[in-house]
Amino acid sequence: MLPVIAFGEALVDMLSSRLGDADDRAPETFTPYAGGAPANVAVACARLGVPSRFLGMLGDDHFGDFLAAELSAQGVDVSGVTRTREARTALAFVSRDADGERTFDFYRPPAADLLYRLEHLPAGVFAEPAILHLCSNSLTDPEIAETTLAMAEMAARAGCLVSVDANLRHNLWAEGRADSALVTRLLDCADLLKLSREEVDDLRGDHPEDDWLAERLAAGVKLAVITDGGGPVRALGAGLSLAVAPPKVAPVDTTAGGDAFIGGLLAGLSERGFAEGWHQDAERLEDALAFACRCGAHAVTRPGSYVALPTRDDLASV
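RE: above sequence
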């Protein structure tokens, strides 16, 4: 079983008490939940029994203490977490509509996670085979983008598998829109690439979808996985095309759905290691995708992030 190393932001999701427009007249309150996409993936893997580690920077503040404690309590190795007084821990205020779909208002930048540099990497972090997981939220400032891309290259050179979730959040970028060329540069560093249907449409621009995905595979991506809310998940590789339908559930909060999915996929694949040709083993991939779909389905039926991520016992009823 390969360990998972997730790098990027850990932040506090301040979840609104309101659900859609039905309770506009009620006082709005916010409940803090530990979150952040890469941190969610680290927790998802740990809760499924896969050794996981989180790399990142937290503010030396109350919310940083909260996140460090929550990650550790979930079984995530936090020895690669650094703290700083130069910036505060990031916050995201999360609103939900009647279907559980969410919108985010980020208090970032400035934020501590953007200050992580290669010099903060623990010695020998990629000395043993592992999976490095990244997302585009650590591209929003030039310095953290340089760190992220360099880390992907280091991991690949060391023989690690690189997983990338696009996880586009346009309102995190100074211009109010992600730099598609920079995001695509990170996507092309991946062995395993995860995107939502909306992200594919956003990033491909005027390119036909099949041509754009073929370009990613030609750049070195071994497996591209496209989710579509409650619709079938599509997986593409060289000579491989799969579709897996997720379980039907009634969503309450979709905040951690994608992270639960990719965490479940990494956990399912990690159990057997990544032997040569892993990306062309249709039976194994179909099993791993079905498991990942169950993880995502479980997560969207509960509010919050870490607390919504399933254990293996939780999946018995999904």
